[in-house]
Design a protein that fits this description.
CATH topology of chain A: Rossmann fold
Oligomer: heterodimer
CATH superfamily of chain B: MetI-like
Number of domains of chain A: 1
Number of helices of chain A: 10
Number of strands of chain A: 11
Largest interface: A-B, 26 and 23 residues
Strand order of the largest sheet of chain A: 1-11-10-4-9-8-7
CATH class of chain A: Alpha Beta
Low-confidence stretches of chain A: none
CATH architecture of chain B: Orthogonal Bundle
Mean pLDDT of chain B: 89
Radius of gyration of chain B: 25 Å
CATH topology of chain B: MetI-like fold
Number of strands of chain B: 0
Number of domains of chain B: 1
Shape of chain B: flat
């Protein structure tokens, strides 16, 4: 297998780069889960990570907000550089909390806190020291509107988040991720626990969100990647095999392996 | 399948099911040993002591005359000691439990501490009494006081509180923690805003179960030198001789319910046996009330916690 990533980018697709993995690697203890990944994230675009189970796509996603720092024995290699300030997110002197304040995350299974709908969204703001009630209320409302949930919950903001349906819970988590104006939002298979209707509404939401924010999404669902992403990265056993404009990757994959996976010949 | 085959299968099932029934009966018997013994004891104490339980029993000090003796100093002592125990054990135990679960790096030192804590729970209570006698009573000069007793019992139930705290914290799904960290929360913000509120039901239950154990402890209290006959109450705040303070009662001599019981049972007169039974009955009721409170609190606090 070649270690060279196949790039599949048309010249006119060059938007501004928001973040970039440079020779990025990751270890769980002695086990190298990701190898030499070089990949750009384009500003205000949706980039999808696809690949068979265990290929490292979630591991890569969780490196962007240094989630791996929560567990002992994990180690990063190389850099993930964020623009416009050219900060290496993985640098020792960069606090992971600072990284998480710039890059928020939506998880695979909706994980609202056992608090009210209002407090769930407000939490991102409270950890930033915001206490002013009217400002909190304004920003919670704004985030819930941004997550297309406001009309459904505006009369029951004090209800528990857990009383919402699965799709609503996931949109609540998106509102929580949106509340603090992140620069990038990470989505880790956000619809895998949802029914098709809820999935459609989340996909529509992601398409709307990219006007304001850069999105990186892990998905198992090839059609989903094709529907919502601008760029697609195909990974296999810890390596980035092909990266390119989604249409190109799906219609004319340059790498034989990518083609096999996308056409369902393996995976 | 022929009718004979079917019959054979049915026979096999019937034979196998005999063991189901056998274990069912065995289990009920095993259960009954515990439940019936407690019920018998409780009812026996109630019958023996019931005649002695009236208002005077709660408002009288002990006396040489069985009929006039009461448990005033004992129940007041027990309540005050329990307050000190709770106030000391809860912050220490919860802080230690939170630290071990949420802060401590996982390596052999923390493993060693874990094993130690589990073993502490098995140390005989008299050993705590000896430790307290040397440390609190003499070394720290706290005397044979309510404070010394409360701190001793706090040490005794500390492992219970720590273990309960850790178990309650462990039942919080990792994805909730990750959700908090992903919002940009610090370790302490996650503990304060999520870990403690969501585990409070389990922690409280553990605390109350620990206190229910402490309330009946006699040996360590005798070891530190609680009096067996005491005919006065600890001073109310600011009530003693000037300069009386808010916390004078902490340093007062005292007795507690189990010691009062022990004192009465060791008397030869039969009338005092009735007093002991009555005091025992009240003590069991206090314990049951605490356990009841634990169940109620757990229900109340868990109502709004769903993942």
């Amino acid at each position: 297998m070649s270690n060279e990533t196949t790039l599949n980018i048309e010249p006119d697709a060059n938007a501004a780069i928001k973040a970039e993995c440079r020779n990025f690697g990751f270890y769980y203890g002695d086990f190298q889960a990701l190898k030499d990944i070089n990949m750009p994230l384009y500003d205000k675009k949706v980039t999808a990570l696809i690949g068979p189970s265990g290929c490292g796509k979630s591991t890569l996603l969780r490196s962007f907000n240094r989630m791996h720092d929560l567990y002992p024995g994990n180690r990063y290699q190389g850099e993930i550089v964020m623009q416009p300030d050219n900060t290496n997110l993985l640098a020792r002197e960069v606090d992971p909390i600072e990284v998480r304040m710039r890059i928020s995350m939506v998880f695979q299974k909706p994980n609202p806190f056992p608090k009210s709908i209002f407090e769930n969204v407000a939490y991102s703001l409270r950890v930033r020291g915001l206490t002013n009630k009217s400002e909190l209320a304004d920003r919670v409302q704004h985030s819930l509107k941004g997550a297309a949930l406001w009309d459904e919950v505006k009369h029951r903001l004090n209800d528990l988040g857990a009383n919402l349906s699965g799709g609503q819970q996931q949109r609540l988590c998106i509102a929580r991720a949106l509340a603090a104006d992140p620069e990038i939002i990470l989505f880790d298979e956000p619809t895998s626990a949802l029914d098709p209707i809820a999935t459609a509404s989340i996909e529509e939401l992601i398409t709307e969100l990219k006007e304001k924010v850069t999105i990186l999404i892990v998905t198992h669902n090839m059609q989903q990647a094709a529907r919502i992403s601008d760029f697609t990265a195909y990974m296999y056993i810890g390596e980035l095999i092909e990266f390119g404009v989604t249409d190109q990757v799906f219609i004319k994959p340059k790498n034989k392996q990518t083609e096999d996976y996308i056409t369902g010949r393996f995976g | 399948m022929t009718p004979q085959d079917l019959q054979a299968i049915r026979n096999i099932i019937a034979r196998a099911k005999r063991w189901d029934a056998f274990f069912g009966v065995l289990g009920i018997l095993a259960l009954m040993v515990g439940v019936l013994t407690f019920m018998t004891l409780f009812v026996d104490m109630a019958i023996q002591g019931m005649g002695r339980i009236d208002v005077g029993f709660f408002t009288n000090f002990p006396s040489r005359h069985a009929g006039q003796a009461g448990i005033l100093s004992a129940w007041v002592g027990t309540v005050l000691v329990m307050i000190v125990t709770g106030l000391a054990a809860v912050p220490l135990g919860v802080a230690a439990g939170v630290y071990l679960e949420e802060y401590a790096p996982k390596h052999w030192v923390t493993d060693l501490i874990e094993i130690n804590i589990t073993n502490l729970a098995g140390v005989p209570s008299i050993v705590y009494g000896l430790l307290a006698l040397g440390l609190f009573v003499y070394q720290f000069g706290l005397g044979q006081s309510i404070l010394s007793a409360g701190l001793t019992l706090a040490l005794l139930i500390l492992p219970v509180v720590i273990v309960a705290t850790r178990e309650a914290i462990r039942s919080i799904p990792q994805i909730i923690r990750e959700g908090s960290y992903a919002c940009g929360a610090t370790n302490w913000q996650t503990v304060r805003d999520h870990i403690l509120p969501y585990s409070s039901a389990g922690i409280l239950t553990g605390v109350i179960i620990g206190m229910a154990r402490a309330i009946g402890e006699t040996a360590p209290i005798i070891t530190i030198g609680a009096l067996t006959f005491i005919a006065f109450l600890p001073p109310l705040p600011f009530a003693g001789e000037p300069p009386a303070g808010l916390f004078d009662w902490l340093f007062a001599p005292f007795t507690v319910m189990p010691i009062q019981m022990f004192n009465w049972t060791s008397r030869p007169e039969a009338a005092f046996q009735a007093n002991a039974a009555a005091a025992g009955f009240i003590l069991v009721l206090m314990t049951l009330a605490m356990n009841g409170a634990a169940i109620w609190l757990r229900y109340r606090l868990r109502k709004n916690i769903t993942w």
